[in-house]
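Subject: design request, 129 residues
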């Protein structure tokens, strides 16, 4: 059983398709990351039912430097997942556009970087001030 799961994971992560493979892998990883953040967020909001004191005691975690850096990773995950999802949706609506899939990935990367870099810099500046 474990050997079969390991083989399946190895096959799933085997590099097969240039930009499309990396987009596929990052889309899955960022989707899992966003899901885990949302689960954590639901738990911390649930703590409000135990009173403000319990909730406020948890807030110190979000003010830690590693948690603030986590905001940049969260923003990366949400933004990449959204931009890649839009690319896939556009290509799904126009199946003839799939022949330009590689160019679409690079357009996606450009749009992502134009949005991510200035925003990440702004997050870092607000963290340091």
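Subject: RE: design request

Done. Sequence follows.
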């Amino acid at each position: 059983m474990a050997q079969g799961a390991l083989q399946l994971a190895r096959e799933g992560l085997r590099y097969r398709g240039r930009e499309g493979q990396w987009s596929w892998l990052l889309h899955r990883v960022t989707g899992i990351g966003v899901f885990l953040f949302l689960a954590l967020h639901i738990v911390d909001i649930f703590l409000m039912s135990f009173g403000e004191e319990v909730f406020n005691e948890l807030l110190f975690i979000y003010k830690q430097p590693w948690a603030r850096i986590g905001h940049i990773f969260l923003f990366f995950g949400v933004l990449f997942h959204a931009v890649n999802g839009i690319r896939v949706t556009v290509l799904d609506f126009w199946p003839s556009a799939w022949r330009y899939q590689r160019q679409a990935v690079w357009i996606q990367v450009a749009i992502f970087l134009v949005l991510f870099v200035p925003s990440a810099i702004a997050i870092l500046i607000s963290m340091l001030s």
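The chain has a mean pLDDT of 87.
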